[in-house]
Amino acid sequence: MTTALWPLQQAIVQKLRADAPLTALVSGVWDEVPETAAYPYVSIGSITELVDDAHNQRGLTTNLVLHVWSKYLGFREAAEILAALDAVLDRQPMTVTGYKDVSVAHQQHQELRDPDPEIRHINVTYRVWMTKEEE
Fold first, then answer.
1. Does the pTM exceed 0.85?
2. Which CATH number fits domain 5-124: 3.30.2000.30, 3.40.50.150, 3.40.109.10, 3.40.50.300?
């Protein structure tokens, strides 16, 4: 099996950082969040892969978790950022280096209250299907 972890992460970060409506809502999209990052922001969470081969083609089904962080009182701001993420990712075309037939769909999300009472958090899972390009 060939992993798509790094090419997928690069594609996601590049796509999110290039979207003007999303970047107008957040201070950044981070893999490793700097301590000086201002709220609200989006961070990359875990990526899991499952082999999903078909006949003579190598394929992967991937679950990608993104985190929305906010200090807005209530979940309104985080929910607006989630909607912006969906506009960029859910059922939208995506290019991942070394892969074809890339398809992305929103699977689930969850609102969470952080132990810090000022912080609101939504984690969202996207399912990504892709087929390895022939070498």
1. yes
2. 3.30.2000.30
